[in-house]
Specification:
By secondary structure, this protein is α/β, with parallel strands linked by helices. Among the domains are: 127 residues, Rossmann fold, CATH 3.40.50; 66 residues. Strand 1 and strand 2 form a beta hairpin. Helix 5 crosses helix 6. The longest helix is centred in the middle third of the chain and has 31 residues.
Length: 527
């Protein structure tokens, strides 16, 4: 397999070429305000020959566009929300716990109808079909095209969500429906919030994917496009456009997967020091450990497939206050090559401190000669304290851990840290995020409550369902491997109930790549 992996970060856009499992080349270019230029520049920087370009099997891209849209309150679309739970939950309608400004941007209207199931899987109330159809017509009259459907305990039984989604598609032919049971687990509000964020970003996701396609065309690349996901895996472009929330934390997880691949380690703590932030995560079986609690995105409570990460404002572009002896959290970002002292700018950054300390050789070292040795050591000492504190937050025991340091700002990680047995640095570590994108696999995941089954039967049922979902997403069935399995008995439910979480991964099915490539050629012939 010959692949190009790209990760679009806040400061740099990294790209790598992988051929037969080896990193042939890695490059960094400055991230651009528009998507197309930065991605195209990264591909062009790889200096591919014409023959090699034609032989690329897949283009894998990771991006922060979608989570940035939520955090920055930009590019969000109005969403209609249908909750199927009456007569329950009416006192806490959708958007109840949202920040006011964000809710104003995304709230296109709320409808609540009778239906849903109870916590033990039994029907809570009969689905009001007439109300569902009337609601669909009202949504159509308002001109809303993006709709969320969330039913009470739908992860146990999604039939009501599916029925209402079918009605919406009958009444509004061009509607985009997000069913909450496909995104989140048990937890009505958190699952609903994730679905709303997803629906509000679909228009942006489609625009972004189109920009990626344009970047491919601009450099003459015909390979099929895949977009990386929160769990370190990948999805076809069309699927990624339908579920943009699954790409929220893909940058950090790409780095962790890349770190595991380049180091050969499957159990370790990873720190990815970029230009703006340092992201900490814990590898388990070569994949990032997933968060099993509420995750706040832009001030909104969610509970869906997200890695367990800690991010701090420490990076190569972080502002440095020499008088106060502090570093970050503000950063010059993609303007580093213009604003840092060593590049002729006027801002003291972490990169300038690294150059002054002899940790890295960039730009004009004479421009940082005025920074004293005491000032340099003070900033590096503060940097060391920040790293130690956050490595400790990721640890699951008091024992020393192995720390893999990657990213363009990894020079800020010292060789000795409290709580760390050894620091591992890898070749091409500066582009670990792009490597993680290039080697990504396809996943299938299940988080569901099973009743009336033994533990082994419940886990086997979940594994079978996870395998099916992975194959549907484009995985080669023969390559599927189990990477995570958890089961938790639920004492308050009858029938020997237990919650089972299973995750499997597999290689991209070759027929998917061939099909995508043929469809691309056919589309170009028609145009």
């Amino acid at each position: 397999m010959r692949r190009i992996g790209i990760d679009v970060g806040g400061t740099n856009t990294d790209a790598v070429l992988i051929d037969d499992g080896k990193v042939v080349q890695g490059v960094k270019v400055a991230t651009t305000a528009d998507v197309t230029s930065g991605v195209a520049a990264a591909i062009e920087a790889l200096d591919l020959s014409a023959n090699l370009t034609a032989g690329i099997d897949a283009l894998m891209i990771g991006t922060t566009h979608f989570i940035n849209a939520v955090v920055q309150r930009r590019h969000l679309t109005k969403v209609a929300v249908i909750r199927i739970a009456l007569p329950a939950t009416s006192s806490l309608p959708p958007f109840t716990d949202w920040p006011a400004g964000l809710a104003e941007l995304a709230n296109g209207g709320v409808w609540q109808i009778e239906g849903g199931h109870d916590y033990d899987g039994r029907r809570f109330a009969t689905l009001d079909i007439a109300a569902a159809r009337q609601t669909a017509r009202e949504i159509s009259n308002r001109g809303l095209k993006y709709v969320v459907v969330n039913a009470l305990f739908s992860p146990l039984d999604p039939s009501d969500e599916k029925a209402v989604a079918a009605i919406l598609r009958e009444e509004i032919p061009d509607v985009s429906v997000t069913c909450a049971h496909l995104l989140g687990g048990i937890g009505l509000l958190e699952r609903e919030n994730a679905a709303i964020l997803n629906a509000s970003l679909i228009a942006l996701a489609e625009e972004t994917i189109t920009a990626f396609e344009h970047a491919k065309s601009r450099v003459g690349l015909n390979a099929p496009l895949f977009v990386t996901q929160n769990d370190g895996t990948v999805a076809e472009a069309s699927r990624a456009a339908a579920y943009p929330v699954f790409s929220f934390a893909s940058g950090a997880t790409n780095s962790m997967r890349g770190a595991a691949y380049l180091s050969g380690l499957k159990e370790a703590v990873v720190v990815d020091v970029g230009g703006t932030t340092a992201d900490f995560g814990h590898l388990r079986n070569g994949f990032p450990r997933e968060a099993n609690a509420v995750v706040h995105i832009g001030g909104v409570r969610t509970l869906f497939r997200m890695p367990d990460l800690v991010s701090i404002g420490l990076g190569g572009g972080s502002h440095v206050d020499l008088d106060g002896g502090t570093i970050g959290p503000l950063s010059v970002g993609y303007r580093l090559s213009k604003e840092a002292l060593v590049f002729g700018g006027n801002s003291v950054t972490a990169t300038d401190i690294g150059v002054a300390a002899g940790l890295i050789d960039l730009g004009d070292r004479k421009r940082v000669a005025h920074i004293t040795a005491d000032e340099v050591s003070g900033i590096l000492r503060r940097c060391k304290e920040m790293l130690e504190e956050n490595v400790d937050r990721m640890k699951t025991s008091a024992e020393d851990v192995t720390l893999i340091a990657v990213g363009g700002g990894a020079f800020l990680v010292p060789e000795e840290l409290q709580g760390v047995g050894r620091v591992v640095r890898v070749q091409h570590g500066g582009c670990a995020n792009a490597v993680g994108a290039a080697i990504a696999q396809v996943s299938g995941e299940v988080d569901q409550v099973f009743q009336g089954l033994t533990r082994d039967e419940a886990v086997a049922s979940a594994r079978k369902l996870a395998d099916t979902r992975a194959v549907e997403a484009g995985a080669e069935s023969a390559s599927l491997a189990l990477v995570e399995a958890e089961d938790t008995p639920i004492a308050y439910l009858p029938g020997n109930a237990m919650r089972v979480r299973v995750k499997v991964v597999g290689d991209i099915r070759s027929t998917r790549i061939e099909k995508a490539a043929k469809e691309k050629v056919a589309c170009q012939s028609v145009s």
